[in-house]
Amino acid sequence: MTRSRTAAVLSSLSLQVLAALVAGQLWLNALRMTIIPLVFSLLVTGIASIADAAATGRLALKAVWVFAALLVGATLYGVLVSQGLHVLWPIDPDGARLLLAGAHGDAAVRENLGGGGLAAFLTSLAPSNPVRAAADDAILGIVVFAIVFGFAATRLPGRLRQPMTVFFEAVAETMIVIVHWVLRAAPIGVFALSLGVGLRAGLGAAGVLGHYIALVVLSLVGLILLTYAVAVLWGRVTLPRFARAAAPAQVVAFSTQSSLACLPVMVERARDRLGVSAATAGLVLPLAVAVFRITSTVANLAVCIYVAHLYGIELSPGVLLAGGVTALAVSVGTVGLPGQVSFFASIAPIAIVMGLPLEVLPLLLAVEVVPDIFRTIGNVTADLAAARIVEGRDATADPEAGAGI
Q1: What is the DSSP letter of 29?
Q2: What is the distance, to the nearest Å, from the Cα of residue 75 to the centroid of all Cα atoms in its chain?
Q3: Are 301 and 90 in contact (CB under 8 A)?
Q4: With bands split at pLDDT 50, 70 and 90, how would you rate the model's confidence at 107?
Q5: Which of 89, 97, 347, 367 is the most exposed place for a label (fewest CB within 10 A)?
Q6: Per residue in 222-278, pLDDT tens?
Q7: Going by C-beta distance under 8 Å and a sequence separation of 6 or more, which residues neighbour residue 315?
């Protein structure tokens, strides 16, 4: 009697795990189907908006170049610091085993982009058949094709470019609506995946998730500190002055997790406390909120590199290069998307390019609240630094210095 009851319990537990994994995978697939059309459309419209902004004058063009330089530097930093943190503080192998045992997904053979060498990587940048590349999830080729397509579109006369841009904007908005529908089921989808993990892994997975949060936050804190140094060196402003000017915007960022909500206080602090002219602040800061998200590449690469170490996947230089290029490009297109939407729209393409599984991403989304706070703080800090760098003049006297603040 006891044996039959035990068998019934185990059978019921196995059915619960199976049902949870199936429901979670179905939810993840619903998100995944939007990735390619969403990323392609966002890149085309994003590049068009940047080109239009840069064409409005020398100040806007200078701002775009500053944004580009900071993004490239942040991408290099993101790869190096994430890899370094894993060397200094590696994932607990027992916890990783438990987490993956619960989140076990399709362990299909995944191609390593670095395996073919530099020639294979360069060849993948120009897909001979973009439709087949999309069907094969060859995201890097799609990203490159979207960038070329977007820049080519800027050469068209306005009567042709405008309807095409509106079309891709409509496609992107449609995909976002679908993602919102899917994310309404996020509590069910994440719960289903978490249930599968919990039933298989127990509390052993919790430590890994805490470790994940810590490493992503550390990489973002390092970026914020580096932004202070960049502002001092290239913005020609003292560290105390920049810190005092940025603090109110950082407080708003902490409470709202929205760069757009921080825009009014950023404009006020840039003009009144950083010596940025009204013209520069009025142009650069709204443009930064629209097209510049410096923490995107750092945090998204930190997530993908964590997933790679979680699964024990070795990251060759070719894979890291492909991931960095994709992260840099995708960061332009996904600026301004809501946090949950941008998490998948930004990270999934990078993960696919790097040959990483996506099954664990919903679990990481469930704990994204804390990293998202530091993402926003880093973005507004970099926006103010960029405005000070674009201004280019020597900083005027600090109006707060005489008040003893």
Answers
A1: H
A2: 11
A3: no
A4: very low
A5: 89
A6: 999 999 999 999 999 999 999 999 999 999 999 888 887 888 899 999 998 999 998
A7: 83, 114, 305, 308, 323, 354
- Cα separation, 376 vs 265, whole angstroms: 14
Q: Kindly give, in sequence order, each residue whose CB lies less than 8 Å from that of residue 404, ignoring residues fewer than 6 positions away.
A: none
Tell me the pLDDT band of 14, cut-offs 50, 70 and 90: low
Taking the C-alpha atoms of residue 174 and residue 36, their distance in angstroms, rounded to an integer, is 13
Token readout for 12 is 């019921």
Q: Which of 205, 208, 188 has the alpha carbon at shortest distance from 22?
A: 188
Helical H runs in 235-335? Answer: 239-256, 259-273, 278-291, 294-311, 317-333
DSSP string, 30-75: HHHTTHHHHHHHHHHHHHHHHHHHHTT-HHHHHHHHHHHHHHHHHH
**What does the pLDDT read at residue 20?**
56
What is the phi/psi pair of residue 202, to 5°? 70, -150
Non-local (6+) Cβ contacts of 66 within 8 A are 386, 389, 390
Question: Which alpha helices (H) appear in 111-157, and where do they start and end?
Answer: 117-124, 130-135, 139-153
pLDDT at 118 over 70: no
Please count the other Cβ atoms lying within 10 Å of the Cβ belonging to residue 222. Answer: 17
The maximal CA–CA distance of the chain, rounded, in angstroms, is 85
Cα angle: 161, vertex 163, 166; to 5 degrees = 105
Tokens (6 digits) for 143: 């990203």
- Identify whether the C-beta of residue 393 lies closer than 8 Å to the C-beta of residue 237: no
Determine the residue type at 60: A
CA distance 199 to 16: 9
